[in-house]
Amino acid sequence: MTSQQKNSKYFQEKPKERIPKWLIRPIGNASELEKVQNLVKRLELHTICEEGRCPNRGECYASGTATFLLGGPICTRSCSFCQVDKGLAPADVDLQEPERVAKAIRQLKLNYVVLTSVARDDLSDHGASLFTSTMNAIRVQNPNIDIEVLTPDFWGGFNKESLCLEAQQKRVAQVLDSKPVCFNHNLETVARLQPEVRRGATYAHSLQVLKFAKEISPNIPTKSGIMLGLGEEPNEIIQTLKDLRKVGCEQVTLGQYLRPSLNHIPVKRYWEPKEFDQLAKKATEFGFSKVNSGPLVRSSYHAK
Fold first, then answer.
1. Does 166 have pLDDT greater than 70?
2. What does the pLDDT average to over 120-143?
3. If you write DSSP's letter for every residue of the chain in order, what string do you get?
4. What global pTM score does this model have?
């Protein structure tokens, strides 16, 4: 835990209630889980399904969907909600990773795959080439597969904000040039809570990613996700949905934040299923073409 976390009012608070019953679900098909876990381990790959301990991974594996984590298991950001390990000096880029991901997809007979990555602020392109090289490798072995990307914000690397903005746009364009079926970048939380929840990222930079994506490739759907339970107010969620629509975002996921460990930011509130339904109705009214809203919804849940 960082010194900033120790001094934060959030990390000094204890959870106010036990996990409610609607968040407890069976692990799912054990044989499918074991098959994927063994293959991922054998090929020295990473999935956000496992790294993030997603509660839906058994269901997704059984339905032919998985989310691969590119760039290794170490993230250069220190977001207070995330299970993925953090560090300033990740390992060198594994040039064989794209081929192994493609091999795993072929062996698992997946029909829809989501590619995400740790933040790699140490790389000149901030990891954009991790996506393009992997998409290209997948299509050599699996030409008919649909690929969705869930990217970091691609921000930084220069002293001037104007240069960072230009670089961000080029990195987004690089990923879109490989023609994913959906471009996803998560806001994660409302504007007020960004500094506490997403260290190293900002609300404005994330909205800019989605704006660039829609301007560069108008025909590729854009998508974003929001976690609930971090202390946000209903009116803040509504404003966030409106802000996403202003930059052309067409799809949104809303799910309950679950604390991975005592070293992570605590849950402030467990939102009820009916409240997620109400937010889904609002999002649809705002013009989102696809809305997944529920306690156990995650970024890649029912992605296809």
1. yes
2. 94
3. --HHHHHSTTTTSPPSSPPPGGG------HHHHHHHHHHHHHTT--BHHHHTT-TTHHHHHHTTEEEEEES-SEESS--TT--SEE-SSPPPP-TTHHHHHHHHHHHHT-SEEEEEE---TTSTTTTHHHHHHHHHHHHHH-TT-EEEEE------SSSSHHHHHHHHHHHHHHHHTT--SEEE---BS-GGGHHHHSTT--HHHHHHHHHHHHHH-TTS-EEEEEEE-SS--HHHHHHHHHHHHHTT--EEEEEE----STTSPPP-----HHHHHHHHHHHHHHT-SEEEESTT--TTTT--
4. 0.87
